[in-house]
Specification:
The complex is a heterodimer of chains A (773) and B (371). With 773 residues, chain A is α/β, with parallel strands linked by helices. Helices cover 57% and strands 8% of the residues of chain A. Chain A is built from 35 helices and 14 strands. Chain A has a four-stranded mixed β-sheet with strand order 2-1-3-11. In chain A, strands 7-8-6-9 form a four-stranded mixed β-sheet. In chain A, strands 4-5 form a two-stranded antiparallel ribbon. Chain A is globular and about 95 Å long. In chain B, the strands form two sheets. Chain B has a five-stranded antiparallel β-sheet with strand order 8-7-2-1-9, with no helix packed on it. Chain B is elongated. Classes of the chains: A alpha/beta (773), B alpha+beta (371). The interface between A and B is large, with 118 and 105 residues.
Chain lengths: 773, 371
C-alpha cells in the first residue's frame, strides 16, 4: 500500500516522466497448433531484440476466439491487435472498433498497400478506409491421390487449363469403385465438406451470386445459383460419386484427408491448409484447380486479417507491431509449413514462390490451383455485410444440410436459405437506420455511463441508513420493540439491496434495454418495440428455438417426474442395502453439469458406451441399422439429451423420498383397517399427501427446462440444423456472439413471459388438485 | 412407510439393483476411459486398460507397439455355409475372432496356427538395461496385462492450467461461502425472530424471486456489471453472495424458528444487546444449518458454468468449469485426457458428499418443504 502511494506520488510530481518499462502491445491470436505458436514466439523474440522499447504480449485463445474477442471489446479492454474474420469486417468497422490504417500506410515509407494482391486490399477496405491485411490467405482446391488415378487408369486433371465441370464429373465417375462387389463404394470419386466455402465458388463459377448487387437480398434461389447447387447435389444422388449427407455422417470419424490418404476417396475438395497433414501422411498427391462451370473459373478466399483496436492507447507502437505481424518475413515463416499462403505480390508471383514453397509440402499443382486464382483475380470473398456473422453461422453453415440428406428439393432448400437470409438482412437494415434522439435515448445513454455513480450513491444512502439502524438498535432510551425494529431493518438490509441490485433491478433495467438497440460498444439507443416486432415477424430463429424448447420440455418434464417419483416409491422400503442404492441414484445429480456434458459427449459418441451397449445386446442387428450418431442426427439429439438428464433423476428422487417418509404411518394403518389394498392406499393416501411436492417439482421442472443451456452450448452448438437450438442458447448467441444486447433483453423478457404463463397454467390445472393437508 | 412382504422387497431390490447398474455405468465408463492409453479408448470390446509386455533377454519390459507387419494364419470357419472349412488368410482380416466373407457376412473362426507370424516393432518403456530400445518380435510373444494409465491424470493436470483453475475456483468458492453464510444468516434471523413492519411482504417478495429464471436475469445483470466496470473480474461472481440468496435465507429462517424463545429472553434479561444475542447465542447454535449452507453453496459455485463463462475472459482467471469446457474443444478427440479432467472435477464433489451426508439430507428436506 505504501509503495503504491509512493509511486502515485512520483507519477503525480514528475508528470510526464520517461517510461522505463517498455510499452506493451497485446496481440490476440487463436492458434491451436504448437508449430504455429512456436513460429510466433520466434518472430516476437526477434522483434523484441530490434525494438527494446516495445513489448508484444501474445494472448493465445484457441477456443471460443470470436466470443472472447467480442466480450473483451464489450468490456472495453480488447487487445491492441487481433484477428478478425473476413465476413465480420463490416460489422466491426460499423461499430467503430477498428483503426483505419490508410493514413499510416500513406505516411510510412517502409510499406505500401501496393505490396499486396489487390483483392486482399479490396477485401479489407470498407467505406473508404483500410483496416489491416491478412498476412496469411487461404483458398480452396481439389487434392487428388495419384495412386487411385493410376489404379483406375484415369488421366490426371489437365495442367494446361482449368478443367470443366463435365470433365470433372466424368473423372469422378471413373474413380468411384466398389472393389469387392459388395454393393458399397470402397473408393469415392470425391469427398467435400458441406461448409459454405466448398460450394459457394461454384455459384460464382456458374454466373450466379449469393447476394443481389445492392446486397439487400439473397439470390441463391435464382437460376444460375440454383443450377450450381443442383449440380453439386447430382454428384451425390445422380452420379453417386460423392457420399451423401447420411453417408458422410457415418464417415465423420474419418476426416477428409485421412480418406484421401487411405485411398477411400480419390479426390478431396478442401482448403490448402490441409497440406501439412497431407505431407505427413506421405502418399503420392497433387492439386488441381476447382473445376469451372459455365461462367469461368472461380475460387474463394477464406482468410482472416489483423486489425488494430481503434481505442488503443499506443497507436504508433501498435503500428510497429502490426508491421511485424504482417511483414514479408512473418508471411514466409507461416507459409512454409503449408497452412497459409502469403499475400504480398512479390511472394505470390512465380519468381517469389521459391522463398516460401517447400519441397514435400507444396506439390507441383499448388501454384496453378491455390495461388493463381489470387493473382488472376478469379477468387472472391463473401461480402462483409452488417449481420454477416449471423448469416454465415445460422443460415449458410447448415442451411443446406437437409438438401444433402435429400429430404427437400433444391428449389425448396435454396428458397428456404434465401428467405432466412432475407430475414436477417432486413433485420440489420432496420438496425442501421438512423434514429432520432429522444429523451429516452439520452436517458439510456445516461444510465449506461453513470451506472457506477448511481450505484455508489445508492450504497452511500444504504450505509447512512445502516448506521442509523445500528444506532437505533442500541438505543436504550427507546423500548425493546423499537430496538428490534431497527435491528430487523439492519439485518435485512443486505438482502433488500441484493433484491434491488441483482434481481428486481436487472429485470426493470432489462425491460428498458429490450426497447433499445445496443451493441455494448456504443450507448444504447431507444427504438421502441422494434426488437419485439422483429422477433415476432422477421427472425427465422425465434420460432425454431421456441419449438425445440417446447418439445424438449414436453419430453423431459413428465419423464423425469414419473421416473423420479417411481424410483422414490421403490426406494421407500426398509431393507438392508437401500442406503447404498439411494446414494448410487443420487450421486449423478451432484456431478458438475460441465463434467456431465463432457462425459455424456463421450457416452453418446458413435464409439461410446450407449452404442456399445446397444450393439452388445443386439439392438442394432434387430433393427438392421448401424451405429447411431446420437448428437448429430436431428431426430435423436433431443431424446439423447433427455436421456442424459434422466441420469440425474436422483435430484427429484430424494425430494419425493423425503416427502414419502414424512407421511404418518397411522394413515396407512387406518386405511388398512378400512380394508384398502395397496393400490387404494396409494391412490387415497400417498398421492394426495405427496401432491404438494409433486406440484412443486412440476413447476420447477418447467421453469428449469425452459432454461436449458449447457447441452446446447457444450454438446451440440444448437445443431444439427438447429434441432437443439434451445431458447437459452439462442439468447446467449444473440447477446454474446452477435452483440444484439437489446434484442437479447427482449428475448429474455419473452422467455420470462412464457415461463410465467406456464407456471400460471400449472398452478391453474394442477394447483386445485393439490392437497395441502 | 407401507410394509412390504419379503418377496416384494426382493423384487424391488432387484429392479433397483439393475437400475443402479445403469446409474453407475457412466461413472465406471468415465474412470475406465480415463485410465486408458489413447488408442484403447475406441475399443469397447476391451473393458479394462491394458499394457503389453514382452520378454527380451530374460527381462520383462512393458512395450509400446510402433509398427506391425501382418503375416498369415490358418483358420477354421466355425459358422455359415462353409463351417468346418480350413483356409489360410491374411492375419489383419481376423478381427475379434471373426473374418469378413466374400459375401459380406462375418463368420466366427478359430485360429489354428500362424503360417507366417505377424511381427511387431515395439519400444521397450519400463526399467531395464534395454529401456528405450526398439525391437521386433513375433506378435505371439506379446503378453497383455491390466495396467491403468495414471499418467493421464498427470497429463491433464499439467498440459492444461488445471492447478491454476483449481486455485481460482477455490478462491471464488471460499468468498461465496463467506458471503452467503454472513448475509443469509442475518436475514434469516431477522425474518425468524425479529418483529418489524413489512416483514411478511418482504419475505414473500424475496421468496418469489426464487422463481425468477436465471437466464432472464443473466443479460441485464451482465449489463449492470459492465456498467460497474466489473467484467473480467471475480466481482460479479462473488459480490452478489454478500447480498443474500432467497433459498438459504429461507433455510436459516426455518432453523432459527426452532430455537426456543426463552433462551433469547434470558439473554436479554442478562443485558445482552440484540446484536450480541445474534452473535454469541444464535450463530453458535446454527452450526448444522451453516454446514448445510456451506455444502450447498460449495456445490453451486463449484458447478457454476454460465456465470464464469460470461464474466471471465482471461484464460488465466478461468474456473474449473470453464477450463474443462475449453479443454473439451481443445482436445476434441482425446477422450482419455478429457475423462481424466472430468474425473478431477467430479472427485471433490463426491468426497464432499460422503463427508457431509447428514447436512445434505438437511438441505434436501428443506427443499422438499418448500412445496
Amino acid at each position: 500500500m505504501l509503495r503504491l502511494l509512493q509511486s502515485l506520488l512520483v507519477v503525480t510530481t514528475l508528470g510526464a516522466a520517461p517510461a522505463e518499462e517498455p510499452t506493451e502491445i497485446t496481440f490476440m491470436l487463436g492458434v491451436a497448433s504448437t508449430e504455429e505458436t512456436a513460429i510466433w514466439q520466434e518472430r516476437l523474440a526477434e522483434f523484441h531484440a530490434a525494438h527494446p522499447d516495445l513489448r508484444i504480449r501474445l494472448i493465445n485463445v484457441p477456443n471460443f476466439y470470436d466470443e472472447k474477442l467480442q466480450i473483451m471489446m464489450a468490456a472495453g479492454t480488447p487487445p491492441d491487435i487481433f484477428r478478425v474474420e473476413a465476413y465480420a469486417l463490416g460489422e466491426w468497422v460499423e461499430r467503430g472498433a477498428l483503426l483505419d490504417l490508410k493514413p499510416f500506410y500513406e505516411r510510412d515509407p517502409g510499406v505500401s498497400l501496393d505490396d499486396y494482391v489487390p483483392m486482399e486490399v479490396e477485401k479489407w477496405s470498407h467505406r473508404g478506409g483500410f483496416y489491416g491485411i491478412s498476412g496469411a490467405t487461404e483458398t480452396m482446391a481439389i487434392f487428388f491421390n495419384k495412386d487411385c488415378f493410376d489404379r483406375c487408369g484415369v488421366d490426371y486433371p489437365p495442367t494446361d487449363r482449368v478443367w470443366t465441370w463435365d470433365e470433372f464429373v466424368e473423372t469422378a465417375k471413373a474413380l468411384t469403385r466398389d472393389w469387392d462387389g459388395d454393393g458399397e463404394v470402397d473408393q469415392w470419386g470425391l469427398r467435400m465438406s458441406q461448409w459454405w466455402a466448398s460450394w459457394s465458388p461454384f455459384i460464382w463459377s456458374n454466373g450466379g451470386a449469393i447476394f443481389s448487387e445492392d446486397q439487400t437480398r439473397c439470390v441463391i434461389d435464382e437460376p444460375p445459383a440454383q443450377e450450381a447447387m443442383r449440380r453439386i447435389w447430382e454428384l451425390m444422388y445422380v452420379h453417386e460419386v460423392l457420399p451423401t449427407g447420411t453417408e458422410m455422417l457415418q464417415m465423420k470419424s474419418m476426416s477428409g484427408d485421412q480418406m484421401l490418404a487411405g485411398g477411400r476417396a480419390a479426390m478431396l475438395l478442401t482448403g490448402q491448409w490441409v497440406l501439412p497433414q497431407m505431407a505427413s501422411a506421405g502418399f503420392p498427391m497433387d492439386m488441381a484447380p476447382l473445376p469451372q462451370m459455365d461462367a469461368g473459373p472461380s475460387n474463394i478466399v477464406v482468410s482472416t486479417n489483423y486489425a488494430i483496436f481503434s481505442g488503443t492507447k499506443h497507436p504508433e507502437a501498435a503500428w510497429e507491431a502490426y508491421k511485424l505481424i504482417v511483414s514479408e518475413e512473418t508471411q514466409i515463416a507461416l507459409a512454409r509449413g503449408g497452412v497459409v499462403m502469403p499475400c504480398n505480390k512479390s511472394l505470390l508471383r512465380p519468381e517469389g514462390l521459391s522463398r516460401w514453397t517447400t519441397e514435400g509440402i507444396h506439390p507441383p499443382g499448388h501454384y496453378r490451383s491455390a495461388v493463381a486464382p489470387m493473382i488472376e483475380g478469379t477468387a472472391r470473398v463473401l461480402p462483409s455485410l452488417v449481420g454477416m456473422s449471423r448469416i454465415q453461422e445460422e443460415a449458410l453453415s447448415h442451411g443446406f444440410d437437409r438438401l444433402w440428406h435429400d429430404e427437400i428439393s433444391i428449389e425448396e432448400a435454396t428458397r428456404r436459405v434465401a428467405r432466412q437470409i432475407d430475414g436477417f438482412l432486413e433485420q440489420s437494415a432496420i438496425d442501421r437506420r438512423e434514429r432520432e434522439d429522444t429523451w429516452l435515448s439520452s436517458l439510456g445513454g445516461f444510465l449506461g455511463e453513470h451506472l457506477k455513480t448511481i450505484a455508489w450513491g445508492l450504497l452511500a444512502i444504504a450505509a447512512v441508513l445502516a448506521i442509523r439502524f445500528y444506532r437505533g438498535s442500541l438505543d436504550q432510551r427507546r423500548g425493546q420493540e423499537h430496538r428490534e425494529k431497527m435491528l430487523g431493518y439492519l439485518f435485512v438490509a443486505p438482502c433488500v439491496l441484493g433484491l434491488l441490485f441483482f434481481s428486481l433491478g436487472p429485470i426493470v433495467y432489462s425491460l428498458f434495454l429490450s426497447l433499445c438497440d445496443w451493441d455494448l460498444l456504443r450507448a444504447p439507443r431507444f427504438v421502441g418495440i422494434q426488437n419485439y416486432r422483429q422477433i415476432f415477424t422477421t427472425d427465422p430463429l425465434f420460432p425454431q428455438a421456441l419449438k425445440v424448447t417446447a418439445i424438449y420440455t414436453a419430453l423431459t418434464v413428465p419423464i423425469e417426474l414419473l421416473a423420479g417419483f417411481t424410483v422414490a416409491l421403490l426406494m421407500n422400503v426398509r431393507v438392508r442395502g437401500i442406503g447404498a442404492l439411494r446414494t448410487i441414484y443420487y450421486l449423478p445429480s451432484i456431478v458438475p453439469s460441465v463434467a456431465t456434458a463432457v462425459l455424456w459427449l463421450w457416452i453418446l459418441n458413435p464409439e461410446g458406451l450407449l452404442n456399445s451397449f446397444l450393439d452388445g445386446i443386439g439392438a442394432f442387428d434387430l433393427f438392421g441399422i448401424g451405429r447411431v450418431e446420437w448428437l448429430r442426427n436431428k431426430d435423436t439429439v433431443l431424446p439423447a439429451i433427455v436421456l442424459m438428464n434422466l441420469w440425474s433423476v436422483g435430484r427429484g428422487m430424494v425430494i419425493y423420498l423425503a416427502g414419502l417418509q414424512g407421511i404418518p404411518k397411522e394413515l396407512y394403518e387406518a386405511a388398512q383397517l378400512d380394508g384398502a389394498g395397496a393400490l387404494r392406499q396409494f391412490w387415497h393416501v400417498t398421492l394426495p399427501l405427496m401432491s404438494p411436492v409433486i406440484f412443486f417439482n412440476l413447476v420447477m421442472g418447467v421453469i428449469f427446462s425452459f432454461q436449458v443451456f449447457n447441452a446446447g452450448y457444450l454438446m451440440t452448438q444448437g445443431g444439427p440444423d438447429h434441432a437443439s437450438y434451445f431458447f437459452a442458447y439462442y439468447l446467449y448467441q444473440e447477446a454474446f456472439k452477435y452483440l444484439h444486447m437489446g434484442y437479447a433483453n427482449a428475448l429474455a423478457w419473452i422467455l420470462f413471459a412464457i415461463i410465467l404463463f406456464w407456471t400460471v397454467i400449472v398452478f391453474r390445472v394442477f394447483g386445485r388438485r393439490v392437497f395441502y393437508g | 412407510m407401507p410394509k412390504a412382504s419379503p418377496g416384494r422387497r426382493l423384487t424391488i431390490l432387484l429392479v433397483l439393483g439393475v437400475g443402479a447398474l445403469g446409474m453407475a455405468a457412466p461413472f465406471l465408463w468415465l474412470i475406465l476411459s480415463s485410465l486408458k492409453p489413447e488408442h484403447q479408448v475406441f475399443d469397447p470390446s476391451r473393458l479394462l486398460p491394458y499394457a503389453q509386455y514382452v520378454t527380451v533377454d530374460d527381462e520383462e519390459y512393458r512395450a509400446e507397439v510402433e509398427g506391425r507387419e501382418y503375416g498369415t494364419s490358418r483358420i477354421r470357419i466355425e459358422e455359415g455355409p462353409r463351417a468346418g472349412e480350413e483356409r489360410v488368410v491374411p492375419a489383419q482380416g481376423i478381427v475379434a475372432g471373426r473374418i469378413d466373407s466374400e459375401s459380406g457376412e462375418r463368420w466366427r473362426v478359430i485360429v489354428l496356427e500362424e503360417v507366417e507370424p505377424t511381427r511387431v516393432t515395439v519400444r521397450l518403456v519400463s526399467d531395464g538395461p534395454l529401456e528405450g530400445e526398439r525391437v521386433t518380435v513375433s506378435a505371439a510373444g506379446l503378453r497383455e496385462g491390466v495396467r491403468p494409465r495414471f499418467e493421464n491424470y498427470l497429463e491433464a493436470l499439467t498440459t492444461f492450467d488445471f492447478l491454476r483453475y483449481l486455485f481460482n475456483t477455490l478462491g471464488v468458492v471460499a468468498l461465496t461461502i463467506l458471503g452467503t453464510v454472513l448475509s443469509c444468516s442475518l436475514c434469516g434471523y431477522a425474518f425468524a425472530r425479529l418483529e418489524f413492519p413489512g416483514r411478511g411482504t418482504l419475505f414473500v417478495l424475496l421468496l418469489s424471486t426464487m422463481m425468477l429464471p436465471a437466464v432472464v436475469t443473466m443479460i441485464p445483470s451482465f449489463s449492470i456489471f459492465k456498467g460497474l466496470g466489473w467484467l473480467d473480474t471475480y466481482l460479479p461472481l462473488v459480490v452478489p453472495a454478500f447480498f443474500g440468496n432467497p433459498f438459504f435465507i429461507f433455510l436459516f429462517r426455518q432453523f432459527f424458528k426452532t430455537i426456543p424463545g426463552d433462551l433469547l429472553d434470558a439473554a436479554r434479561l442478562d443485558g445482552c444487546s440484540e446484536i450480541g444475542i445474534y452473535w454469541r447465542i444464535v450463530l453458535p447454535l446454527a452450526k448444522p444449518a451453516i454446514a448445510t449452507v456451506v455444502i450447498f453453496t460449495f456445490l453451486e459455485t463449484w458447478n457454476d458454468f454460465l456465470r464464469p463463462l460470461i464474466y471471465l475472459f482471461d484464460p488465466m482467471k478461468f474456473t474449473l468449469a470453464v477450463g474443462l469446457a475449453s479443454f473439451r474443444s481443445y482436445y476434441q478427440t482425446q477422450w482419455h485426457l478429457l475423462m481424466a479432467a472430468a474425473a478431477i472435477m467430479i472427485l471433490p464433489v463426491l468426497v464432499l458428499f460422503f463427508v457431509g451426508q447428514k447436512s445434505f439430507k438437511e438441505g434436501v428436506n428443506v427443499s422438499g418443504l418448500k412445496g
